[in-house]
Amino acid sequence: MTREKVTRIGVSLPSKLLGRFDELIGEKGYTARSEAIRDMIRDRLVEEKWKENENVAGTITLVYDHDKHNVTETLNDLQHSFCSKINSSTHVHMDEHNCLEVLIVRGKAKEVNAIAERLISQKGVKHGKLVMTTTGEGVE
């Protein structure tokens, strides 16, 4: 395995901003500023892939009341209509009425976003969230 060449750079920051950054990365468990900065850069590069409609992977998390009229059937039917983009799902009974469903999805960013919006907007869905990431391509 070959190691990628690392280039050192310098960054000038106001001391107050640097202090706040150090507090933040300490809370998150980073032991070095460099790794925190690398992660921030990677995160921004991944977000750019969404704008460029690149291939992404992600999760769609749904919390819904299964007692609401037809919500379970509607969500199930929608998932079947998007079966080429939904790779997996997990269903959890949170209590007597509420369910948590997590879907793992892959596809073009706009397609994945449209699927999430369609599912989250269904009557009976109390909360939903899409989290997208890169497929790993092009992010080192």
Summarize this, please?
Helices cover 40% and strands 29% of the residues. It has 140 residues and is α+β, with helices and mostly antiparallel strands. The two termini are 14 Å apart.
Topology:
Blueprint: H1 15-28, H2 33-51, E1 55-65, H3 71-81, E2 86-93, E3 98-108, H4 109-120, E4 125-134
Antiparallel strand pairs: 1-3, 1-4, 2-3
How would you describe the shape?
Answer: elongated
Rounded to the nearest angstrom, the radius of gyration is 20 Å
Could you spell the SSE succession in H and E letters?
HHEHEEHE
* Adjacency order of strands in the biggest sheet: 2-3-1-4
State the secondary-structure class: alpha+beta
Can you give keywords for this protein?
alpha+beta, four-stranded antiparallel β-sheet, elongated
Task: Tell me about this structure.
This protein is 40% helix and 29% strand. The chain contains 4 helices and 4 strands. The chain has helices at residues 15-28, 33-51, 71-81, 109-120; strands at 55-65, 86-93, 98-108, 125-134. Strands 2-3-1-4 form a 4-stranded antiparallel β-sheet.
